[in-house]
């Protein structure tokens, strides 16, 4: 018979359970690591398209280094600024719970890191796994200051799709011959869009369809019969992009670091700010195949329409074999774009549920408009601008999060309207009268833990156009999308509330609308903006002030001691 305190007794079994639980927690903690990175922002000379120029880089690399972490890790990145520009870096798609100080957008959650100064971004990767990315979030410096973030699942947690034999990060970008900041300044001085890019790039390289690019071509070697996970990031400033691999289909398994129901497609569409993971099976005839990228633009707006290429090369095939090009959708293929986005569905499994808010506490309706602002020194005395609900956002000179946390007066007003000043036929004939907007640093205040539905409506003010909108600090569910004017009486009945795609950046279709839902459970000040750099600069942005919750861990953390001064 077991002794009273032995493991055969009830109290003994309790002790054994407690011991096992403590060991389990200790093991979990042992798995979570701290990953340290040093980012030296510096100017380096880089040559592309027969022309060398100085560019801002991280650690002298273009693109910058990939950050690797595992779900549950703490990541500490010391950013030291040796360049002539002020700098801030955004970790795009990381939720930064109650820790907006690590989010990165200049004058929203921090003042920038001045030349000769450093700032430590210190954050936990909680409940996220997949591909995200980082980029400069000031001026147009993200033209060259960007890189991928790869978050591996927790140890012993398998992917919910066939395990790849290998994987490859592919970051899509844009390249300008000239100094990007100077080009932007010239455009702003005239009140016009700056010159478009001269090439697209794949991992910083435009590929052999461009002059002087033999050595500026990215290639990945594959073996017959193996499967490869491509982690694709669109880091372009202003272009939605089609991507395809010649002779091979792709299986989409994740978007914006959220698993999807897998589906097979000959090409993907990816907007600036978005990420997409695809599986590619090396089951073609052994050879060399181009991976190609080209913009999607379904309105007559000038765009850099040149094709960037990289090479998908079977092992043992000599470089003398000419690669074949994929059949990309035509540049204005709206039906492919709509049908592709319609196939995106959350996995919504037991392990990876889609917790879609079914009840909505706050309904918002934001119209997207292009317009004009008075500019006495510009051509015609006006400059192009952009607005949400007819408000062109004015950037403050103090970090908004600091102003909110410290209750500073006079920095912003929490009165951004829930709907536009007046309803009109948003997507009818082009509207060219009354294009002047109001200006202000107006934010939308949201109660903690409330559920929000936001309908983003494109308009034909000057021109309809597709807009990728990014919300910092959150993922959201894209519950509905459509072409034309949103109909509040009929469209909600067609929402997908079961397995809608969950993401951090949504492409609002040209002349259409997207409806997103999220639970406001992350206190702080969170930027919401078009991820076309051109439109962000014109004022197509605002921010949400999410109030603190009642719990001690539901309030914004105190700011770090090294927060850059304004």
TrEMBL record:
<feature type="signal peptide">
    <location>
        <begin position="1"/>
        <end position="32"/>
    </location>
</feature>
<dbReference type="GO" id="GO:0048046">
    <property type="term" value="C:apoplast"/>
</dbReference>
<dbReference type="InterPro" id="IPR034289">
    <property type="entry name" value="CuRO_3_LCC"/>
</dbReference>
<keyword id="KW-0052">Apoplast</keyword>
<keyword id="KW-0439">Lignin degradation</keyword>
<keyword id="KW-0325">Glycoprotein</keyword>
<dbReference type="InterPro" id="IPR045087">
    <property type="entry name" value="Cu-oxidase_fam"/>
</dbReference>
<keyword id="KW-0677">Repeat</keyword>
<comment type="function">
    <text>Lignin degradation and detoxification of lignin-derived products.</text>
</comment>
<keyword id="KW-0732">Signal</keyword>
<comment type="similarity">
    <text>Belongs to the multicopper oxidase family.</text>
</comment>
<dbReference type="Pfam" id="PF07731">
    <property type="entry name" value="Cu-oxidase_2"/>
</dbReference>
<dbReference type="GO" id="GO:0046274">
    <property type="term" value="P:lignin catabolic process"/>
</dbReference>
<feature type="domain" description="Plastocyanin-like">
    <location>
        <begin position="167"/>
        <end position="316"/>
    </location>
</feature>
<dbReference type="InterPro" id="IPR017761">
    <property type="entry name" value="Laccase"/>
</dbReference>
<dbReference type="InterPro" id="IPR001117">
    <property type="entry name" value="Cu-oxidase_2nd"/>
</dbReference>
<feature type="domain" description="Plastocyanin-like">
    <location>
        <begin position="41"/>
        <end position="155"/>
    </location>
</feature>
<keyword id="KW-0186">Copper</keyword>
<feature type="domain" description="Plastocyanin-like">
    <location>
        <begin position="415"/>
        <end position="548"/>
    </location>
</feature>
<keyword id="KW-0479">Metal-binding</keyword>
<dbReference type="GO" id="GO:0052716">
    <property type="term" value="F:hydroquinone:oxygen oxidoreductase activity"/>
</dbReference>
<dbReference type="InterPro" id="IPR008972">
    <property type="entry name" value="Cupredoxin"/>
</dbReference>
<dbReference type="Pfam" id="PF07732">
    <property type="entry name" value="Cu-oxidase_3"/>
</dbReference>
<dbReference type="GO" id="GO:0005507">
    <property type="term" value="F:copper ion binding"/>
</dbReference>
<dbReference type="InterPro" id="IPR033138">
    <property type="entry name" value="Cu_oxidase_CS"/>
</dbReference>
<keyword id="KW-0964">Secreted</keyword>
<dbReference type="InterPro" id="IPR034285">
    <property type="entry name" value="CuRO_2_LCC"/>
</dbReference>
<dbReference type="InterPro" id="IPR034288">
    <property type="entry name" value="CuRO_1_LCC"/>
</dbReference>
<keyword id="KW-0560">Oxidoreductase</keyword>
<dbReference type="InterPro" id="IPR002355">
    <property type="entry name" value="Cu_oxidase_Cu_BS"/>
</dbReference>
<protein>
    <recommendedName>
        <fullName>Laccase</fullName>
        <ecNumber>1.10.3.2</ecNumber>
    </recommendedName>
</protein>
<dbReference type="Pfam" id="PF00394">
    <property type="entry name" value="Cu-oxidase"/>
</dbReference>
<dbReference type="InterPro" id="IPR011706">
    <property type="entry name" value="Cu-oxidase_C"/>
</dbReference>
<dbReference type="InterPro" id="IPR011707">
    <property type="entry name" value="Cu-oxidase-like_N"/>
</dbReference>
């Amino acid at each position: 018979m077991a002794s009273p305190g032995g493991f055969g007794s009830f109290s003994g079994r309790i002790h054994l359970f407690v011991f096992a639980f403590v060991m389990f927690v200790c093991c979990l903690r042992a798995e979570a690591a701290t990953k340290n990175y040093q980012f030296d922002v510096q100017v380096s000379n880089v040559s592309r398209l027969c022309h060398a120029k100085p560019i801002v880089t991280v650690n002298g690399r273009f693109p910058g280094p990939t950050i690797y972490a595992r779900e549950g890790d703490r990541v500490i990145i010391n950013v030291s600024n040796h360049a002539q520009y002020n700098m801030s870096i955004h970790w795009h798609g990381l939720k930064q719970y109650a820790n907006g100080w690590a989010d990165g957008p200049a004058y929203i959650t921090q003042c920038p890191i001045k030349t000769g100064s450093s700032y430590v971004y210190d954050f936990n990767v909680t409940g996220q796994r997949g591909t995200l990315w980082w980029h400069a979030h000031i001026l147009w410096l993200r033209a060259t200051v960007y890189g991928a973030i790869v978050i591996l699942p927790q140890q012993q947690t398998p992917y919910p799709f066939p395990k790849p034999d290998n994987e490859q990060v592919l970051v899509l970008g844009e390249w300008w011959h000239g100094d990007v900041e100077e080009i932007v300044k010239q455009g702003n001085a005239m009140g016009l869009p700056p010159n478009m890019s001269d090439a697209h790039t794949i991992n910083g390289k435009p590929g052999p369809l461009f002059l002087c690019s033999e050595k500026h071509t990215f290639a990945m070697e594959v073996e017959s019969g193996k499967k490869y996970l491509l982690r694709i990031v669109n880091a372009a400033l202003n272009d939605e992009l089609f991507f395809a691999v010649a002779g091979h289909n792709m299986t989409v398994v994740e978007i914006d670091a959220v698993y999807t129901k897998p589906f097979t497609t000959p090409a993907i569409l990816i907007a600036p700010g978005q990420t997409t993971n695809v599986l590619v099976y090396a089951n073609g005839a052994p050879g060399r195949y181009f991976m190609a990228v080209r913009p999607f633009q379904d309105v007559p707006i000038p765009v850099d329409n040149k094709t960037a290429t990289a090479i998908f090369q079977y092992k043992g095939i000599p470089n003398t074999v000419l690669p074949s090009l994929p059949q990309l959708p035509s540049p204005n293929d709206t039906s492919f774009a709509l049908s592709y986005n319609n196939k995106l569905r959350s996995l919504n499994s037991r392990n990876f549920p889609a917790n879609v808010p079914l009840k909505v506490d706050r309904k918002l309706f934001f119209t997207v408009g292009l317009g004009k602002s008075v500019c006495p020194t510009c051509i015609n005395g006006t400059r192009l601008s952009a607005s949400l609900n007819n408000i062109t956002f004015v950037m403050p000179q103090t970090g908004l999060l600091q102003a909110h946390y410290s209750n500073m007066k006079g920095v912003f007003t929490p009165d951004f309207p829930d709907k536009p000043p007046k309803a009109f036929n948003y997507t009818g004939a082009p509207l060219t009268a009354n294009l002047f907007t109001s200006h202000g640093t107006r934010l939308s205040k949201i109660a903690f833990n409330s559920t929000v539905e936001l309908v983003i409506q494109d308009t034909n003010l000057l021109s309809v156009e597709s807009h990728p909108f990014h919300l910092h600090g959150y993922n959201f569910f894209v519950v509905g999308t459509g072409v034309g004017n949103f109909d509040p009486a009929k469209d909600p009945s067609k929402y997908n509330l079961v397995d809608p795609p969950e993401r951090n950046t949504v492409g609002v279709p040209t002349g259409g609308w997207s409806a997103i839902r999220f639970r406001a459970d992350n206190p702080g000040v969170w930027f919401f903006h078009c991820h076309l750099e051109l439109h962000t600069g014109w004022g197509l942005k605002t921010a949400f002030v999410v109030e603190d919750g009642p719990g001690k861990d539901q309030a914004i953390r105190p700011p770090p001691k090294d927060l850059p001064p304004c």
